[in-house]
Amino acid sequence: MEQLSTTPHIAIVPSPGISHFTAFTEFAKRLVHRHSFSITFVIPNDGSLSKAQQSLLGSLPPSIAHVLLPPVTLDDLPAETTRIETIIALMLARSLRNEVRRLQKSTRLVALVVDFFGTDAFNMAEEFSVSPFLFFPGAAMCLSLFLHLSTLDEAVSCEYRDLPELVKIPSYIPVHGRDLLEPVHDCHNDTHKWVLHHARRCRLAKGILLNSFEELEPKVIEYLQGEELSKPLVYSVGPLVNIKQSSKSDGSECLKWLDEHPKCSVLYVSFGSGGTLSYDQIQELALGLEMSEHMFLWVMRTPNDIAAEAAYLARDSQNEPFEGLVVSLWVPQAQVLAHSSIGGFLTHCGWNSTLESMLNGVPLFAEQRINACMLTQDIKVALRPSADPESGLVGRDVIPKVVKRLMRGEEGKRIRNRMKELEDAAAKVLGEDRSSTRALSELALIWKAKLKNQPH
């Protein structure tokens, strides 16, 4: 019989989204570099990998392998109404078992790490005597909400957005129900049911890996790491962000354009890898940016409510040029945010974009609901535009005012200084014997101890 390697092995099951994928790969690289593990990414097969995913996987060291799960038949599901959360759960249920069995036989498999929508794999992990762990790619505040969601759901009889009182999240500032994450808004929606299902199963994990750090969210992380019998141990191992700069990229033209502009003079506008705006909001944003008379770099994606081939950028005036550059679909965001000419970031405030901005000291113009609450009211590194209560749109008249406050006003200077403090703190927590490095070492010790109990 062939002798197995003595190297402890981890199986990581990410969700398809590229921002989550990036955080997973950064965690894997750090674990391999510091603690000499080997890792296999087990990727649900929803079609071919994106170019960004292929690039990420191609850059990983040899000790990090990847396999695509075999395609599964989903013909029994109504294609028009089936949510991505349902698809992910069924992909894992129908195709993960054989791969876990293969890894258990061919490696010294000690842990299965899944993200939020993979908690149904926990039972399978226990079946193969492998420790189940949850990787949470968002903020500690969001994790606190998810761990509390089942209790909250039982206490609320209406939709969260209709609650007259503020919602209390453990160890966090109260927020309005309308600012909670979109998936929990409609209790009759399948997505809400899936989120609630996985929120309950989070507590079955042996531990939760958190992409945040103590200096950023001290009160919430202290609460999450407190002793509570029904709550898993939480390891804050962040920030997990790919900030390595390459010499060339597909977006080099926009970097050349940035080279032509003064320090902190350009507003970067992007709503994440999956974030798209409605047609009407794009029109308001375009006109608002033009009215601001401020230089900007805008990564524009197709509106979420019209056909991809439609002409969707209307202009009141076709004769006057924009004060900026509009790029379709993609730019090398890490390099853009690190560029000296970037002075602000208008973003959906997805957690990956937020951490990237923080690690480069770039102030935020915040849009996504619950993260925007945290960044404006708690951490105080962002400005948030007010939306029209009826249409839900941020109007063209609001946008230039916020842009000027962020890019030229005293508030922008204060936020920039605060961002610099967090940039320095983020760098320190990844140093030797600092909080995030210690948390990773604790995990490594637990997983290596599991290895000692396995038969050779």
TrEMBL record:
One of its GO terms (molecular function) is transferase activity. The lineage of its organism: Eukaryota, Viridiplantae, Streptophyta, Embryophyta, Tracheophyta. Pfam families: UDPGT. This is Glycosyltransferase. It comes from Eucalyptus globulus. The keyword Transmembrane helix does not apply. Belongs to the UDP-glycosyltransferase family. Keywords: Transferase. It comes from the Eukaryota. InterPro entries: UDP_glucos_trans.
